[in-house]
Design brief:
2 copies of one chain form a homodimer.
Chain A lengths: L4 H17 L5 H8 L5 H14 L2 E2 L8 E2 L1 H11 L7 H13 L4 H16 L2 E6 L7 E10 L2 E8 L4 E7 L6 H15 L9 H10 L4 H18 L3 E5 L13 H12 L1 H7 L8 E4 L12 E10 L2 E10 L4 H20 L3
Antiparallel strand pairs in A: 1-2, 3-7, 3-10, 4-5, 5-6, 8-9, 9-10
The structure holds a DNA duplex (30 and 30 nucleotides).
Chain lengths: 341, 341
DNA sequence: GATTAGCACTCAACGAAGAAGAGTGCTAAC
DNA sequence: GTTAGCACTCTTCTTCGTTGAGTGCTAATC
């Protein structure tokens, strides 16, 4: 369904005004704001049309109008001009990423933090799982009387480690033999290609020290499981305290609970990202109990997989700013990571 | 200053009642609750005395009384009976710790989470810095064209690692030589005993590959710096949303900001813990802008150093429960860790 | 001298009633 | 199709009286 030019201007005007003030917008305000050459009465008629079409709603008879979820959707799909970061901001972001390039955890945390600050919404960055990385090296290092450390390294520089129990009198040579067997069997393989059978073959190939081998196997399996997980960093959750729509404590509680609880948050973030920037408005995110939030998310490629980056805020969100910023930050991140792994 | 028995009973009664209901407590309520054999009028006289002494206050003329900060202090110092966990809860806690014994991060997070749940306040666990651990082993592992991984392990099983840049054609033997020099010089030393001079000596002892050595030195210095940091885990921050005193959004914001921001939180936690359980009530924590929170914190020993564990809640806190729980959890944690490192 | 009953008094909390004001929807004129 | 004019609606804010919990004081009682 297409709108004529004047209706578009009015819809946009109401959205911009409402997003800024969080107050219903009246016909006079629309005229004044845009210096339109039509009277308030005409605008009123148009607004009545827009309401009938479902793009606007009225909190109560004879209040101004506010955009409906459908109204935002129309704006986002058909009218929105993305607003992106300034040159200086982009440079700052690049510096932040480069300065932390040695540690993914640092990168995603700092970038998320940047995004939260740039948009004033809650933000997240997801780093893809490492299942496509290649197994590089395994080592077993005795550290204390009864303990040894199993360390595994991937080609992309990820380190995983786990303690295991070993007999106190174990010879270092034994541990080395075991490690060698693992390295020979797994070296160069992608983590997601390592099967249980591979591991069993290693076990069978060695004659002695079965008990220790089992411990190592256990550790390796634990690491492989961990490598499947996508790391996530969240920032700016407290930004939502500034939004007037969440002055209601009950709503606030629900939303903070989601932002604090890893699992809930992951559930909320869209699985597929079709366009450059995916925007989910209000109930389009079907989470039980919460209708009042929107998500803007974009993807970025690294390590042959897809990471995600986005912001979470109220429905009354500056989508133009959020979409542009999320998109740009994702691109910058992708670009710098490309040179790295 | 000492109180007679009846005043104590009345003070305690008011504290317990107020902590539970968050409403000022009247004289009738005190009589009823405790089935005291005196009349409300008598209690009123006593309450007037207690107010004069500074232990109670009145929100406004002719409201009930609420405990003053001094009143809580007196109660905590002179009357409080700590209330601890049940056998079942302690067993659960032990299981939680044992199940995660292989990773400190896991332990402190899970224990903090347990504590938050057990008390319904925000909780934290601080793991001591690792400066007393001993350097065990350093390794340099090439991982990509231009990169190598410097891995250091301590006797207590801590792993630190950092990527460095290396020339693409570097021989593994060179890296091994460098690593050996480090191991020889630093092996067995406590991290806090490793000086800049030690590092410089290593640099001087090697003739070739100065550039790579500098990179490794940089990495080692970075790790040493990191080892000085105390790890902290926080849980249950959302519990404060349930406290009626924080229904005011501005106060809530301030407090959440502290709980979310690592640095602020560390500042808030008492440096010295003299008694088994240190309790700081209201303004006794001098943080600017916030007078309304109390902290209950205890220490535990591990790795030859002191970790901290505690809860943060409103002044209107169940100190008896909090103190007992914090103390017990700290003891259990200390005991299990003792068998480990 | 300590305790208690009785009673006037205080003050927050609640709610009803009225005034103000923003904004609409409709009608009739342009 | 557009606009001016006006009655109407509904929230918000303020005021003002009512209610009720709880005190503090006085005088009587143990």
């Amino acid at each position: 369904m297409s709108l004529d030019e004047r209706k578009k201007i009015i819809l946009e005007s109401i959205i911009k005004d409402y997003v800024e003030t969080a107050e219903p917008v009246g016909s006079r305000a629309v005229v004044k704001k845009h210096g339109l050459n039509i009277s308030a009465a005409t605008v009123r008629n148009e607004m009545a049309d827009l309401e009938e079409m479902g793009y606007l709603e009225q909190p109560y008879t004879s209040a101004g109008r506010i955009p409906s979820q459908l109204g935002y959707r129309y704006y986002v799909d058909c009218m929105m001009q993305k607003e992106t970061l300034s040159e200086e901001e982009i440079e700052l972001l690049q510096k932040i990423i480069r300065d932390n390039i040695h540690e993914w955890n640092e990168i995603i945390e700092k970038v998320s933090s940047f995004l939260a600050q740039a948009t004033s919404y809650a933000s997240f960055v997801i780093f893809p799982s490492l299942t496509l990385s290649k197994f590089k090296y395994l080592q077993i290092l005795p550290i204390e009387d009864h303990k040894a450390l199993v360390i595994a390294v991937t080609d992309s520089g990820l380190i995983m480690h786990r303690k295991i129990e070993v007999p106190p009198n174990i010879a270092e040579g034994d541990l080395e033999t075991i490690a060698k067997a693992f390295n020979k069997a797994l070296g160069g393989k992608r983590l997601n290609e390592i099967t249980r059978t591979d591991l069993m073959l290693i076990r069978d190939s060695l004659k002695r020290r079965k008990k220790i081998i089992d411990r190592v196997l256990e550790a390796v399996e634990y690491m492989l499981a961990g490598s499947k997980e996508e790391r996530i960093a969240i920032s700016g959750t407290l930004n939502i305290l500034n939004e007037p729509e969440f002055k209601d404590l009950e709503k606030l509680k629900k939303i903070l609970a989601i932002l604090e609880e890893d699992v809930l948050l992951r559930n909320l973030i869209p699985e597929d990202i079709k366009k450059e920037v995916e925007i989910r408005i209000g109930t389009e995110n079907n989470i039980e109990g919460i209708k009042e939030i929107s998500i803007v998310v974009s993807g970025y490629h690294t390590l042959g997989q897809k990471g995600k980056i986005g912001v979470i805020g109220p429905i009354r969100m500056e989508y133009w700013k959020a979409a542009g910023t999320v998109e740009t930050v994702g691109k910058v991140l992708e670009q710098i990571l490309k040179g790295q792994f």
